[in-house]
Design brief:
The chain has 282 residues and is mostly helical. The chain has helices at 2-43, 47-52, 64-71, 73-106, 112-124, 131-141, 147-171, 176-183, 188-199, 201-217, 220-224, 233-239, 248-279. It has two domains: 20-51; 68-280, Orthogonal Bundle (MetI-like fold). The chain crosses the membrane at residues 23-41, 83-104, 116-135, 147-170, 191-217, 248-269.
Length: 282
């Protein structure tokens, strides 16, 4: 009799504990989701309803904000500009950081620790510190109001972070692997590209995610270095106003669209981010 009751009691206690954590998790998620759900609700409502009627569930639905977003060149052009310089920055940051991180993880040289610290200090500095130098240099070089300008400027902040993250992942790969590849006759470029890089693909995924997210949400540098030709979506949203005031439905639709690329990137690298946390580099 006692053998039958004991497992049931343990199962009941375990089930109650699990339900408490589950309810707390969903409660936090619900509170956290309120601004996002409210933004999505505003994006499918009429402007007059947004300003005059308090509704949790819209009584009237309109997709005018989304239609206007994809029919106005300044809006979908701003989205293309943002995707262009963000992708460019992400690819270049990872490409530049890979050999640098390998050098820090495999070799010891004079001043290596000081150089590593100096790289990180660039990441810690506020973006406003570098605005004037970037503005004058890009004007002199003819890069002002181009997507290249923003992509290159963001590399100043993303490359140090990328080196720091990748160095942690590379240090986890045994050095004996390099020696075995050399004994087997691998040239260094072949070993690095076909053996070493695939082994740290989790680190590359995490690095690409952080480079993408920083460049995607950064506003100050993007606003200073761009004009009408290369204006990104975040700047377009912050400068949009009509004679009748703000177009709430259009701005809300733009906000929802601006969230989608980040959600897609997070979906693909979610497992890699967990591994980055485990290694202490995220």
């Amino acid at each position: 009799m006692s053998d039958t009751i004991a497992p049931v009691a343990r199962a009941g206690a375990k089930g109650t504990y699990f339900d408490w954590k589950s309810w707390l998790f969903w409660l936090i998620m619900a509170i956290w989701s309120i601004p996002l759900l409210w933004l999505m609700s505003m994006s499918v409502r009429y402007n007059e309803d947004i300003l005059t009627v308090f509704e949790i569930i819209p009584s009237r639905i309109s997709f005018r904000g989304y239609i206007e977003f994809f029919s106005e060149p300044q809006w979908y052009g701003a989205l293309i500009n943002s995707l262009t310089y963000t992708t460019m920055n992400m690819v270049l940051s990872v490409a530049v950081a890979l050999p640098a991180a390998y050098a820090f993880s495999r070799f010891t040289f004079s001043g290596d620790k000081h150089l590593f610290f100096w790289l990180l200090t660039n990441r810690m500095a506020p973006a406003a510190v570098f605005l004037l130098p970037f503005f004058q240099m890009y004007q002199a070089l003819g890069l002002f109001d181009t997507t290249y300008a923003v992509a290159l400027a963001h590399m100043l902040f993303n490359v140090p972070l990328a080196v720091w993250i990748l160095e942690g992942f590379m240090s986890g790969v045994p050095r004996q692997l390099d020696e075995m590849a050399e004994i087997d006759g691998y040239s260094f470029p072949r070993f690095f590209l076909t053996v070493f890089v695939p082994m740290i693909r989790a680190g590359i995924g995490v690095t690409a995610f952080f480079a993408f997210m920083f460049s995607w949400v950064e506003l100050l540098i993007a606003k200073t270095l761009t004009g009408p030709q290369a204006m990104p979506l975040a700047v377009q949203m912050s400068t949009t106003s009509t004679a009748a005031g703000l177009d709430w439905a259009l701005l809300s639709a733009a906000g929802v669209i601006a969230i989608i690329p980040g959600v897609i990137v997070i979906w693909f690298v979610r497992n890699y981010i967990a591994k980055g946390f485990a290694l202490g580099r995220v």
